[in-house]
Design brief:
This protein has helices spanning 9-19, 32-44, 61-68, 80-89, 127-139, 169-176, 209-218, 250-255; strands at residues 51-55, 72-77, 96-100, 114-118, 146-153, 183-190, 193-200, 222-228, 238-244. By secondary structure, the chain is α/β, with parallel strands linked by helices. It has one domain: Rossmann fold (3-Layer(aba) Sandwich), CATH 3.40.50.150. The strands form 2 sheets. It has a 7-stranded mixed beta sheet with strand order 3-2-1-4-5-9-8, with helices on both faces. The protein has a two-stranded antiparallel ribbon with strand order 6-7. Strand 2 (72-77), helix 4 (80-89) and strand 3 form a beta-alpha-beta unit. The longest helix is centred in the N-terminal third of the chain and has 13 residues, at 32-44. It starts with 8 loop residues before the first helix and ends with a helix. Bound molecules: S-adenosylmethionine (SAM). S-adenosylmethionine binds next to loops. S-adenosylmethionine (SAM) is lined by residues 4, 7, 10, 26-27, 56-58, 61, 77-79, 82, 102-104, 118-120, 123.
C-alpha cells in the first residue's frame, strides 16, 4: 500500500487543512458546475440505480451528488483522512461506501456500470503509474461502461506539456521544479470566511488533447468527447474527457 508514498502528499494536505479549521480542500457537494455535469452525465448514460465507482474521491463531493441522483456509489482514495471525511459525508446514503486504496497498485474488485475521476488522474506523475491506473480503471468497468475524467490539468498548447519520459518521482520533481515539502501559503473555506494554511505544492501532470487521447486509447478506452473547461478557482486550465470501455466482440473476448 505504501509503495507510492509521494501520493500521500494529499494526506498531509487534508490533515493541515482540517487542523487549521478548514471545512474542506476539494470540491463541495453543492459545486454548481460539478452538479450540472454529473446530472447530465447520469441522465445521458441512464445511470440512476446503477453502480458507480469513483477514483480519488477525496472528501466525497462526487459521492454525495451521485447518491442524491439515485446511483449506488463506491469511492476510493489513498488518503485516510479524506476517506474518513467522505464516509461521514455519505453516512445518510445506504447505497454509498468508501474505502482506502491506491488506484495505481490496487484493482477494485467487481465490475461497475460507470466510473468517475474528478481531478485524480492528473495527480499521477510517472508514465508507468498513469498507465497502470488506467488499466485498473478499465478492468473495473463492464463492457460499454462510461468513464468521466472531470477537470484534469490541460494545456491547449502542446509546447507547454512535458513530452519526454517520466520514469520516477524524482524525474518529475526536477521537471516540475518542486520538492513537495516546502510549504506555501494557501487559503481554504471556513464557515462564511477563509482560513490560511501552509501546505506544500502538489503539482499535477498536465497533458494536451492528443496526449490524453493517446493515454486513454492505449488503455483500451474510446474517447467520445473532449471538453475544455472554463478557468475556475479549483484549477486554471483543465479539460473533461468522456471515455467509454467499448463493447468487445464476443469472439475476441473468448481468445484472451
Ligand atoms: C485534486 S484531489 C481531488 C479530490 C476530489 N476528487 C475532489 O475533486 O475534491 C486528488 C485526490 O487524489 C487522491 N490520490 C492521489 N494519488 C492517489 C492514488 N495513488 N490512489 C488513490 N487516490 C489518490 C488524493 O488523496 C486526493 O484526494
Amino acid at each position: 500500500m505504501e509503495k507510492n508514498p509521494y501520493y500521500l502528499a494529499y494526506e498531509k494536505r487534508y490533515q493541515a487543512v482540517f487542523a487549521a479549521g478548514g471545512e474542506r480542500w476539494g470540491h463541495a457537494p453543492d459545486d454548481k458546475e460539478l452538479v450540472d455535469t454529473l446530472t447530465k452525465w447520469v441522465e445521458d448514460n441512464h445511470l440512476r440505480g446503477k453502480r458507480i465507482l469513483e477514483f480519488a474521491c477525496g472528501e466525497g463531493a462526487g459521492g454525495v451528488i451521485l447518491s442524491s441522483l439515485g446511483c449506488s456509489y463506491h469511492g476510493v482514495d489513498i488518503s485516510r483522512t479524506a476517506v474518513e471525511k467522505a464516509a461521514n459525508a455519505l453516512r445518510m446514503y445506504p447505497n454509498a461506501t468508501v474505502s482506502r486504496l491506491d488506484m495505481v497498485q490496487d484493482v477494485v474488485p467487481g465490475q461497475y456500470d460507470a466510473a468517475l475521476d474528478c481531478m485524480g488522474f492528473h495527480m499521477l506523475v510517472t508514465d508507468g503509474d498513469r498507465a497502470a491506473y488506467l488499466k485498473n480503471a478499465f478492468q473495473a468497468l463492464k463492457d460499454g461502461a462510461p468513464m468521466l475524467f472531470y477537470k484534469e490539468s490541460y494545456r491547449s498548447n502542446p509546447a507547454e506539456v512535458y513530452k519526454g519520459p517520466v520514469c520516477s518521482f524524482d524525474d518529475w520533481k526536477k521537471i516540475a521544479n518542486t520538492d513537495y515539502t516546502t510549504p506555501s501559503l494557501r487559503k481554504t473555506k471556513m464557515g462564511s470566511g477563509e482560513v490560511e494554511v501552509r501546505i506544500p505544492l502538489v503539482p499535477a501532470r498536465a497533458n494536451d488533447r492528443d496526449g490524453y487521447l493517446k493515454e486513454m486509447e492505449q488503455a483500451g478506452f474510446t474517447v467520445e468527447q473532449f471538453r475544455e473547461m472554463n478557468i475556475s478557482e479549483a484549477i486554471q486550465y483543465s479539460a473533461s474527457i468522456y471515455a467509454r470501455k467499448p463493447f468487445l466482440p464476443s469472439a475476441s473476448k473468448n481468445k484472451s
